Amino acid sequence: MFSTIKISLKLIKTVNKDIFLVLTKFFNKKIKNQNEIFKVLRSHPEYRSQVFDLLNMLPVLNHINFEMKKILEKKIVKKTLVNWTYPQIRLDDTLSKDFIAPPHKDRWILDKDKVGYVIWIPLKKEGSNLLIGKVDKTKRIKKNSYWGLEAVGPTKFIKKKINYGTGLLFDADTLHKSDNHKSSRITLQLRYEEIKTKNFRRSVTQKVDSEVLKYWKRTLR
Q1: Which is nearest to 189 in space by CA: 109, 79, 74?
Q2: Run of H or E including 11
Q3: Number of domains into which the chain is organized
Q4: Considering only CA atoms, which of 172, 149, 171 is closest in space to residue 103?
Q5: Interval 167-190: pLDDT, tens
Q6: Within a domain: residue 52?
Q7: CB burial of residue 208 (10 Å; 0-12, 13-18, 19+)
Q8: Does residue 157 sit in helix, strand or coil?
Q9: What is the pTM of this model?
């Protein structure tokens, strides 16, 4: 199951505004658009993981996450939803070959009995592409060094161009993969799940950071 849905330009602009503000502070350099972000990262690839973490800690992501949840509940899935994972921003470009998502299903990071939905949103005005399995012919899965699991089989994929101001909505069982990063892109993924009334179990997990734990163990001896 997949379809395109409209995303408020006001919401997208609010997210982008916070991205530019926080990276202006981080880089100590005025950032006015996404292309400037990648220009800095190409000169300083050592910043990549820090920028990824920083952007995914932006409180504004909770704002768009909540607003899109209301739209899904009222107009599309008509179910009561909760977070499946935290909202996530991805940065991909020509230097990101090691981080290209292989053929996979988000089902593999969700309990087998739960119903989950993903909204995939381009944040650049050029929009972006995602490859969707035309007919799922997955024969088996194998380990993948980045994603964890990868689908193996003769599945053909169709390229879906998602324009700025729209998002791709799909369920947990939709087979998909990243398009080859021939150009830079910044996308936002929102994931929700329907509430199970029996044997409910939290999908998003947290644990104490190992470095923080080490510090407190030394400090509180």
Answers
A1: 109
A2: helix 9-27
A3: 1
A4: 149
A5: 999 999 999 988 876 678 899 999
A6: no
A7: exposed
A8: strand
A9: 0.90
